[in-house]
Design a protein that fits this description.
Layout lengths: L14 E5 L4 H12 L3 E6 L2 H10 L4 H7 E5 L5 H8 E2 L2 E2 L2 E4 L5 E2 L8 E2 L4 H19 L7 E5 L15 H7 L1 H20 L4 E7 L1 E3 L10 E5 L15 E3 H12 L10 E6 L1
Parallel strand pairs: 1-2, 1-6, 2-3, 6-9, 9-10, 10-14, 11-13
Antiparallel strand pairs: 4-5, 7-8, 12-14
C-alpha cells in the first residue's frame, strides 16, 4: 500500500541515513522520504550534485535545508561515515545502502569489471567498523536497521530467467561477487549486533523509466534461516530504478522494515 502523507506524523518519524543517494534507485527513495517529512542524512562526494539532482525532481531548497544533511566524503572514510550516522549524539534509526561501482570494460568484452571491484564489501565493512565503535561506546539505545540493495543472480537456486544466465554468470561475475560479499558482511553484522536487523533487496536488471508502482512490482523473498525458506524468489527480466526506489521507501523505510525484516527480497516487473 502506498504511504499516505496525511496519515504520517512527522514528529515520530525515524532519521534515515543514505549511502549511495546519487544513484537512480536511492535517489528515488531519498526524494520520497524527504517529501513525506523524514529527517535524512546522506554521504556524497559532491554535496551540491546531490542537492541539484533532488531539486530537478521538484524538491525546494527550503525543504532540503530543513530535512536533509549532506556530509562530504566517500564510503570508505570512517570519519565521514560517523558524521552521517550520528547527529547530536544520537544514532540514526535506519541505514539505506546502495553503493555501487561504475562499469569498466576490459580487453575481454565478456568479462567487464568495475572501477572499484570491491566497493560494496569495502564500504559496508567501513560502516560496520563505525557501528562497532558506536555500540561499544554506548551511544546507541538501539542499533539501526540496515536496508541494502543487492542483486538477483547470486543465490544457490535460480532466481533469473534462463536466457539471462550467461549475462549474469559470465559478464556480471565480478560485480556479483562483490554483492555476494556485501550480503555476507551484513549477515556478520547482524550476528554481532552492530545492526538490529536487515532487509536485503535484490532487484532484477535495472532499466530507466517511470515508477509504475505497486501494481507492477512482483515480490518474493527468502527467510533468514534454513527453517524459514520463504515463498521463494520471483523471476523476471527487469525493473525500473524508479520502482526500486518506490519499493524501498513505501515497503521498507516507511514501515521500518515491515514484513521484510530479516529477509532477502527479490523484486521485478
Amino acid at each position: 500500500m502506498m504511504a499516505n502523507k496525511a496519515a504520517i506524523s512527522t514528529t515520530h518519524l525515524p532519521t534515515v541515513a543514505f549511502f549511495g543517494g546519487t544513484g537512480g534507485c536511492l535517489l528515488a527513495a531519498l526524494s520520497r522520504a524527504l517529501e513525506f517529512g523524514y529527517k535524512t542524512r546522506a554521504l556524497a562526494r559532491t554535496p551540491s550534485k546531490l542537492q541539484d539532482m533532488l531539486k530537478e525532481r521538484g524538491l525546494s531548497q527550503a525543504l532540503l535545508d530543513e530535512r536533509l544533511v549532506v556530509v562530504q566524503g566517500n564510503s570508505k572514510d570512517p570519519e565521514a561515515i560517523e558524521k552521517v550516522l550520528v547527529e547530536d549524539g544520537r544514532v540514526v534509526n535506519q541505514i539505506v545502502f546502495g553503493i555501487g561501482g561504475a562499469p569498466k570494460f576490459t580487453p575481454n568484452p565478456l568479462r567487464p569489471t568495475l572501477d572499484d571491484p570491491t566497493v560494496c564489501q569495502d564500504s559496508i565493512q567501513s560502516i560496520r567498523t563505525v557501528l562497532r565503535r558506536i555500540k561499544s561506546s554506548g551511544q546507541a539505545n538501539q542499533m539501526p536497521l540496515l536496508i541494502a540493495l543487492s542483486t538477483t543472480g547470486i543465490t544457490d537456486s535460480r532466481d533469473i530467467p534462463i536466457l539471462m544466465v550467461p549475462l549474469y554468470h559470465w559478464m556480471l561475475a565480478i560485480p556479483h561477487a562483490d554483492k555476494k560479499a556485501l550480503e555476507d558482511r551484513i549477515m556478520e553484522a547482524r550476528g554481532e549486533g552492530t545492526i538490529r536487523d536487515y532487509v536485503i533487496v535484490r532487484p532484477s536488471l535495472f532499466v530507466d523509466g517511470r515508477a509504475n508502482g505497486k501494481a507492477e512490482i512482483r515480490v518474493g523473498w527468502e527467510g533468514k534461516a534454513p527453517g524459514q525458506p520463504g515463498e521463494g524468489a520471483v523471476i523476471g527480466y527487469k525493473i525500473t530504478r524508479e520502482d526500486v526506489g518506490f519499493f524501498v521507501f513505501e515497503n521498507v523505510v516507511a514501515k521500518d522494515g515491515g514484513d521484510f525484516v530479516g529477509k532477502k527480497v527479490s523484486i521485478t516487473h
